[in-house]
Structure formats: structure tokens, C-alpha cells
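Many introductory courses stop at the sequence. We go one step further.
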Amino acid sequence: MKCKTSMRNSKFGMQMKVFCILSDERAFRSKSPAMFSAVMKQVGINGVYVPFMVDKNKIGQAMQSLRVLNIAGANVTVPYKETVIPHLDVLSEGANIIGAINTIVRKGEVLKGYNTNAIGFMDALNDANFDVVGKTALVFGTGGAAKAVVFILNWLRANSILVVGRSEEKTRKIVSSFGGEAKLLESLEGQSIPADIVVNATSVSSPDESPELAALAGRLEVPGCELVFDLNYGRSQNFWQDMAQTREIRFMDGLSALAYQAKRTFALWTGIQVPSEEFKKALPIN
């Protein structure tokens, strides 16, 4: 592995650094701690990366804790990618446009939010040799991940984007911000939706998480679809994958996007450029 900063010259080599991921109970299911910890060891950073479960009513206290405990950097995942923003000091340009963050960089008392989800998703599409230009996309979800996906699909010049959600207000808000067409989830029942790519940007992928969405996905027809991309990972049974296999459509889970966004996050935290392949290798198999 070739990195721009060597192990001996790493400015992080002596002092212990603590990084973390913030979520609800799902923090303990994330593969990020194992992945980042392995990469830190490879490049000679004396550090740890730990999961923190945060109560939804204590987001402000959690942000202050990053300052008080001198946390070197943090990831933020569902369900807090949007709710942490009022508690940050500044946002990157991309995070401000998207309205959701997944990375926090601390410099002294200042917390700055970044969004590496959007570019990570783009890198994963490139890795899969899927060209978005002129294509039709069907995107499920209205949260922070969906915002990043719809933003980058528009930026990559997709021909049309259909955004599907349970809330009419949230769905229309994404469309008004980034473009596309809003559609309520319930209105898809029994429909055939021509789409080149289907993206699941919800937090739901297994039947036990949402039997209703699983049933709808199982009945949904997407003629012409080339790729089903589920941003989630680690489900023993994945109804998006079942949907793709039944229709003989290529399927991707979120591990590739996770590795690509992690590469960019790591560079923001440390200034060290680590090849994305190293993050992929560091991902636990199970």
C-alpha cells in the first residue's frame, strides 16, 4: 500500500487519537469501527474508532462531548445525518447544499460537517461501470442518504429521477431542492416503473424491518433496469437483492460506497490519502 504519509512520519504516531461513529442502537452493527481501526493500524496511527449509541433527545450533548473529550473525528449515520446540523459550527459547501452530513472534523472547539456519502456513491457507481448520464433513476427514501443520492444523480446528469417516500412533505422537499419527480410509496402498488437504476436509500432492507416495503418491492416491476443498488449491508435476508435476482438484474449493496466514502473521510481527518482498495480489504467479511 502506498500512502502519502509514511508510518514513521505520521503526525498521529505518538498521541492516541479517538474517532467514533454516532447513531442509535445501529451504531453497534456498523462495519466502520473494524474498517477504520484496521486502516489506522496499517498507516501507523495510534488510534481507536468506537461506536456510540446516542439518544435522539441528546444530540446537542453528544456534539459538545466531541469537544470536551477531544474526539479527533466522527462519523454520523442514520438517523442523525440531518438532526446534528444545528449543533455544528460550520458546514462544507457540499454538506450545506445537500442538507445532511456523515463526517465531522474537529479543530479545537470548532466542529465542521462534511458529506462524503454523495461522492462515495458516485465512486461506487464508477467502480461498477454504471454511467448515469441520460439514465432514469428510481430512488426510495427521503432522509440524509436519499438527499446525497438524488443530489449526485442530478449532478451526474441523470435524465429523470423518481423519488419515492412515505411522507409527501419530505418527498416533495427533496424534489424541490434537487429536481426530479415525487411519488408516494403507497401509489407504487401494482405499477410498472421503467428505470435504469433502482436505489434503496432507506434504512430498510430485510423483511422483518418492513414487511410492507418488502412485499411492495417483491411485486414492483422495473422494465429496463440494469442495476439495483442498496445502500445498506449486512442483512442475512435482503429483499432488494431478492427483487434483483428474481428479475435477473445486477445487484450491489452498500459496502463499496462505504469504502469509498471512508477513504475521503479518513483524508479529511488525517490528511493521509489511503487507496480505497485498502478500505475494502479492511471490511469484515461477516
